[in-house]
Amino acid sequence: MTGTKIVFKNALKIYALIVGFYFLIKVIGFSHIMGLRFVNILFVLWGVNTAIKTNITERYDSVYFNNLFVGFATSFLAVLATLISMVLYVSFIDDSLLLMLQQSSFWGNHLTLPRIVFAMTIEGAASCIISTFMLMQYWKKHKVTSYVS
């Protein structure tokens, strides 16, 4: 599997988990609980870990910067896809998410969709960087020779 396929496959998994999770909390009526939104980081960590592990075990690539790029690209692509979905959801389906974010003390009162997208892009990029560097502390010690039979 090529590095691009690894990135897209795992980014799609992260995206599906995040969208599915938001759909689930909306259906069961927990969408007003802002703390549940932090569960996203678990999906990102899982997807980045899977991408890096696949790059090492299937492509036999133990170069630190290659795996760092695979992890970051995977998570950032998932963040971008999620943001695009959020914009489409708020714009065409249900704008109550925007109203709920405005009412929470976490975001403030004077929010527009572009401001939310900007803030979430910065937050998402920071989350991508932190989670990728964190996981690379584990994976940097694994060398390809330990996976070749």
Report on this model:
With 149 residues, this protein is an all-alpha fold. 74% of the residues lie in helices and 0% in strands. It is elongated and about 55 Å long. α1 runs antiparallel to α2 (40-59), α1 runs parallel beside α3 and α2 crosses α5. It has five helices and no strands. The protein has one domain.
Question: In terms of topology, how is this protein built?
Answer:
Blueprint: H1 3-27, H2 40-59, H3 64-93, H4 96-103, H5 113-139
Quick recap of the structure?
The protein has 149 residues and is mostly helical. 74% of the residues lie in helices and 0% in strands.
Keywords summarizing the entry:
single chain, 149 residues, mainly alpha, elongated
Beta-strand proportion? under 5%
As residue ranges, the low-confidence spans are: none
Q: Biggest sheet: strands, sense, closure?
A: none
Kindly provide the radius of gyration, computed on alpha-carbon positions and rounded to a whole number of angstroms.
Answer: 17 Å
Overall structural class, as computed from helix and strand content, comes to: mainly alpha
Q: Work out the helix count.
A: 5
What's the oligomerization state?
single chain
Following the backbone from N to C, one meets helices and strands in this order, namely: HHHHH
Supply the number of structural domains: 1
Helix content: over 70%
Q: If you average the pLDDT, what whole number results? A: 87
How far apart are the first and last residues' alpha carbons, in Å?
18 Å
What would the principal axes of the Cα set say about the shape?
elongated
Q: Give the beta-strand count.
A: 0
